[in-house]
Amino acid sequence: MQDNSTSAIEARQIGSRVVTLGVIAIVAVLIGAGILLLFALPDANAFNARVERLFVENDDLTRQADLKLLEILAQSGTAFAEILASYRMVIFVLLIFATGMMVAALVFLVMLVAMNRRMAQIERAGIQVNSLLISREEKKVYLNDMGFKLTDAALETLSVLAEARMDDDVLSGIEIEAMISGKPAADCEEAAGATRIKRLRDSLGNQLVSELLVKNIARRGYVLGIDKDVIRMR
Fold this sequence. Notes:
Largest sheet: 4 strands, mixed
Structural class: alpha+beta
Strand content: 5-15%
């Protein structure tokens, strides 16, 4: 148990470091890309500076038409500066959005990997059941804090499996069918018992719960994959 706890703590620490380093790397890359983009854009006043230089170097531009042209060019330069400013703001917003999306994607990816590992551990270790209560009156089974409504046939199948588990028995499909139907085992078929197991799993609904609760042992039969001491019936 100590080894499992230590492994779990180490796994969480490694996962936290991966997330932290990944977030730092994403932010650093996007900041670098943003700086390059912003510096690659021309100066907002570059157009106005060129217009001013043009008229400074040409003193003979004093006619009314020349002055009107100067005014138009100046207005164009102001509009150009405003457009560049808006471009910078758009780039800034997009970088923030991209950072958030990439960080979220990294976090979800790490969570998905951790969940897959946890599911694999559950499949290897089996489902942890602290109590299994079969209530014939309510036609329900209570698995820990979860209640499952069962059909009469599914409830009978589960009851037979529970009684067999308390006796440390493994039941074949023929034995299950014989015990429920009351027929001699010679008159029953394996497929009939397998069908009852399938219907029980369908009634439980949750695939993970049903597959781990009702186990199929090759060439032997079916058994509940829980401790017999937690089973209660009423």
